[in-house]
Design goal:
Elements (H helix, E strand, L loop, with lengths): L1 H10 L2 E5 L4 H17 L2 E9 L3 H6 L6 H22 L3 E9 L1 H12 L3 E6 L4 H6 L3 H8 L4 E5 L20
Parallel strand pairs: 1-2, 1-4, 2-3, 4-5
Helix pairs in contact: 2-4, 5-7
């Protein structure tokens, strides 16, 4: 059994974690760092600044300044570096790029080559899963390596109240 574990450790030397800065990605960072430490693997990360969809651009009157995007992703990279440093994990790169998240992640996987990928899932529910529109679904379907999906922690799940307000409360 012990020899089997050593063989597994040698198999996985390059791990990619796709991080978008959402609450779900905090769990992804933690899992990626833990696995990289346990497997003695190099950790790489990618964060994708998503381009707005054409219909969203038409309806927007004010665009978010690029400086705010940069600050957000700089903070994301800082949290990744801190988590890796604290765990003693070799962080090889923290790439930030622009584009469609699934496409950018898949391109990075293909160009660089990884043993497996870790990414988060927001847990939007059953109806969303049926549409196959999430980044996680697209990466799972098209990646040329194994993909580990980290769901949102149960305590971070959005709870929907079934209480209906009285008509007098709605004005």
């Amino acid at each position: 059994m012990r020899g089997e574990f050593r063989r597994v450790i040698g198999m996985y030397g390059r791990i990619l974690a796709a991080i978008d800065g959402s609450p779900a990605s905090a769990d992804t960072i933690g899992q990626a760092v833990r696995l990289a430490r346990e497997l003695d693997a190099d950790l790489y990360t990618i964060s994708v600044q998503e381009w707005p969809r054409p219909l969203e651009v038409i309806g927007m009157e004010v665009e978010i300044p690029q400086a705010l995007h940069d600050e957000f992703f700089d903070d994301c990279q800082y949290r990744i570096r801190c988590a890796a440093e604290e765990a003693g994990v070799r962080l090889k790169s923290t790439k930030v790029t622009k584009g469609i998240p699934a496409t950018a992640i898949l391109r990075h996987i293909e160009e660089t080559g990884f043993d497996f990928v870790i990414l988060g899932r927001r847990g939007r529910g059953f109806a969303h899963r049926l549409r196959w529109t999430s980044t996680a679904h697209k990466v799972i379907a098209c990646a040329n390596c194994p993909v580990i999906v980290c769901p949102t922690c149960p305590d971070e799940t959005v709870r929907v109240s079934r209480d209906v307000p009285a008509a007098s409360d709605v004005v």
